[in-house]
Amino acid sequence: MNATKLRRTLKSGGHVFGCMLSQMASTRFEQVLAGSTLDYAIIDSEHGSRDRTEIQSLCAMLRHADITPVVRVPIPKAEYVAMALDAGTAGVLVPYCETVEEVQAVVATVKWHPLKGEYLRRAVEDNVLPSPETKKYLQGRRKESFVIIGIESEPAYKNLDAILDVGGIDGVFIGPNDMSTSLGVPDDYSNKKYLKVIADIIKRCEARKIPVMVHQQTIETSSKAIDLGARFILHSTDGRMLQRIIQQEMNALRKAAGAGVKATKDTAGTV
User: Fold this and answer.
1) Phi/psi at 47 (5° precision)
2) Which domain holds residue 243?
3) Does 98 reside within a domain?
4) N or C: which end of the chain has fewer CB within 10 A?
C-alpha cells in the first residue's frame, strides 16, 4: 500500500497493518515482504544501529514492494526528521515526545522541509511562508509525508491535549514498554492502570480523527489494542516473528520425528 492510500484508509476510519523492522538489513528481503500483506513497515533507527545509507536502501526496497516506509528516528529532533525525509521515507515516527515545543518542531519539519531556521520558525509560530508560491511548492513536495508522535510516558499522557492542539499530527504511537514502565507497572500489559491510559489516549485521539498505534508483540496483546480502538496496527518485529515461526515449524518437525519438542525462549529483545 502506498502512502497516499494508507493515509486515505486511516482518514476514512479504516485499519492499516504493519510491523517494526528491527533486524532486517539486506534488501534481498524484498520478495518476502512483497508477499507479506504488510501495508507499511517501520524502519527502527531509535534502537537499531542504522546509518543513513541503510535507511535510504530500505526505504527504496519497501516502496518497490508496495509497502509504505516509515522511519522511527532516534530522538525528537527536527534534524533527524529531515534526514529521514531526505532518505526517502513517507512517514516519520518521532519517539518519546513530551513537550509542545518538541512536537511543533518535528511536525513543522515534516510539513515544510527543507525550510530551516528562521523561515521554519515563522511557519511554526505564525503560519507564515516566504511566499504563496513557496507554500504551494512545499505542499506539493510534502503531499505524501506524514508524522506520528510518540506518547510514551506519563508526562506525555498528562500533556496530551496540549500536544494534540499543535495540529498536523497524522498518528500517535504508544510504546508499551516505555509507557508501562513510566506508569510503574513495567511490561504488565493486562494491568488496569495501563489499559485505562491506553484506552483514554485512543479515545481522545479518535475524537480528533487521529489514529493510534500500540506496538504490542503478541497476537493477544495486539488484538486487545484493536479492541480498545487502535486502527494503525503495529504488530511485533521482523526478528520476533521470524523467531516464532522457526520455533513453531522446527518443533512441529521434531514432534513428527518423535525427537521431542524443545522449550522456546524469546531472545529477540524489546523495542
Assistant:
1) -100, -20
2) 3-256
3) yes
4) N
